[in-house]
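S1.2 Input.
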Amino acid sequence: MLATTPNSIGMDFIAIPPGSFKMGGDKVLEQAEDHENPVHRVEIRKGFLMSRFTVTQEQWARVMGTSPSEFAGDLRPVESVSWHDTQAFIETLNSKENTQTYRLPTEAEWEYAARAGAAAAYTFGREASSLNAYAWYKKNSGDQTQPVGQLEPNAWGLYDMHGNVHE
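S1.3 Output.
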């Protein structure tokens, strides 16, 4: 079991080490979007903490008082929130814990954490045939979010990095 650092609302954080990786994706092999090209090397010079799971509706409600999500359920990820809503959540959580620690990861940090050292299209390899074990998506989700942490984590112990909600 990987060591986690919990906070006051039950979020568990995993230490992501510094390192470098190839960011972006191959348009043909990985069906990458235009904005994900060209593939380029990025160095993450400072380690950071990343939540093991997506923020749940229960955690959001403990900080913000309500949950705006369409697919209700305490253990489901919060969704139907904007970047501005997320910034308000972070500001309120920082105030609640008397810190300035919490923030969204940068795009590079998020992709680095999602890849967890893998160079392939997915953290588990190049073949989409294993996607059902790691990701909730249109074909296996019933067109709704699912409780966090039900499928396999990536190599760094982060869950739902390939699906469930669109970051």
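S1.4 Remarks. The first strand starts at residue 5 and ends at 6.
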